[in-house]
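for the recovery benchmark. tokens below, seq after
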């Protein structure tokens, strides 16, 4: 409670309200919740409560997550929420880090901690060395389980499960429930309690808009939008690493404070970039999908998709970087070219509503013609026809989202 109060949290989120009592009862649980709903606190608070109450020796909880960024984010939450509890944790992740980090991870595992937060691959490497002791483990958490399976971690997860005590509490959190996740849940969980919080849909507080635009006009349109937009901090997502550098270079030429982050950077560089962005040393971050999940940065007012992601779920996670918290609002803007039209349709099918189209200024034409979208919009009477092609709706002004109240999550 001291940790909660010190962080200013006053009101639990819906998934926290539903999950914490179930976890404290010792039941297995499946939590389906979109990003930004507070699910990390939903499992960390009862885990820390158990550690404080039992004071049991050895590793009590293993948390598996798909990326080192998410692993570090979870550990930061442990540091904050568990600051007064005395709980000890270690992060286990790889990817371009030196031998000294390996030794620190090894020493922490050997000396004993309460919580291990790990990516599956790196944990397996330590387990194969024979010094990881999970005999005291009582709780297992799989966070972003769908992403772990997408990244090919299923064999590692299954091998890790075989090395854990059979009697334990299992908690699985996933934004989606594809067949592979359902199959894993059947193998792993015992009569689980299931919670669903707006699965696979963006928060209603995110205003979603699209521009139908050709590739050659995207940079010019992006620059114009950023110069007119009233934002605090903003993330631009693109699907390719090559595009990150191109976008950053173009924005800097226009004196816009942008920096880029992708898997090309080593771990230390990525961490420093995130810290600088959090500290407002620059206000525009250009990123690949390596950033679309698991990065908890408060106060992002706008997200721009420079292109539509191949997977509609990734669209949800991208724009979920804004409007994080129970009362925060945000704006998600997407550029859609002719090749992305099918992806847009898939997104609209997933979120079960059309996304409002905004007009592209004439200087960025000629506009691509999207027959299916045009026919659909004409049938429902939306927007005025643009003589150069494409269906253009009435212009709307973007408003700066309301500030997030202190202490709300």
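predicted aa per position
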């Amino acid at each position: 409670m001291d940790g909660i109060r010190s962080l200013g949290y006053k009101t639990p989120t819906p998934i926290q309200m539903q999950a914490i009592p179930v976890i404290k009862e010792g039941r297995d649980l499946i939590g389906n919740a979109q990003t930004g709903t507070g699910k990390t606190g939903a499992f960390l608070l009862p885990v820390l409560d158990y550690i404080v109450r039992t004071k049991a020796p050895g590793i009590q909880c293993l948390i598996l997550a798909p990326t080192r960024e998410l692993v570090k984010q979870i550990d930061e939450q442990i540091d904050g929420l568990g600051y007064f509890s005395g709980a000890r944790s270690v992060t286990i992740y790889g990817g371009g880090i030196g031998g000294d980090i390996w030794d620190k991870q090894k020493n922490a595992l050997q000396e004993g901690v309460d919580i291990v937060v790990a990516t599956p691959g790196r944990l397996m490497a330590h387990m194969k060395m024979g010094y990881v002791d999970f005999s005291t483990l009582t709780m297992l958490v799989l966070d972003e389980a769908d992403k772990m399976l997408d990244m090919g971690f299923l064999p590692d997860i299954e091998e890790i499960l075989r090395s854990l005590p059979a009697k334990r509490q299992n908690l699985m959190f996933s934004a989606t429930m594809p067949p592979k996740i359902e199959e894993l849940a059947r193998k792993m969980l015992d009569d689980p309690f299931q919670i669903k919080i707006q699965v696979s849909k963006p928060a209603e507080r995110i205003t979603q808009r699209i521009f139908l635009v050709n590739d050659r006009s995207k940079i010019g349109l992006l620059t114009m939008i950023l110069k007119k937009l009233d934002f605090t901090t903003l993330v631009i997502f693109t699907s390719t690493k090559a595009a990150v550098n191109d976008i950053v270079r173009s924005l800097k030429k226009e004196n816009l404070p942008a920096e880029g982050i992708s898997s090309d950077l080593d771990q230390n560089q990525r961490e420093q970039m995130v810290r600088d962005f959090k500290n407002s040393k620059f206000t525009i971050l250009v990123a690949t999908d390596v950033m679309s999940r698991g990065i908890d940065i408060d106060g992002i007012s706008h997200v721009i998709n420079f292109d539509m992601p191949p997977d509609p779920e990734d669209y949800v996670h991208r724009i979920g970087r804004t409007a994080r918290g129970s009362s925060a609002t945000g704006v998600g803007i997407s550029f859609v070219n002719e090749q992305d039209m099918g992806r847009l349709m898939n997104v609209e099918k997933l979120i079960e509503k059309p996304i409002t189209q905004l007009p592209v200024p004439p200087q960025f034409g000629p506009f691509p013609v999207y027959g299916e979208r045009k026919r659909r919009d004409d049938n429902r009477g939306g927007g005025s026809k643009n003589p150069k092609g494409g269906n253009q709706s009435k212009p709307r002004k973007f408003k700066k989202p309301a500030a997030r109240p202190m202490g709300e999550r």
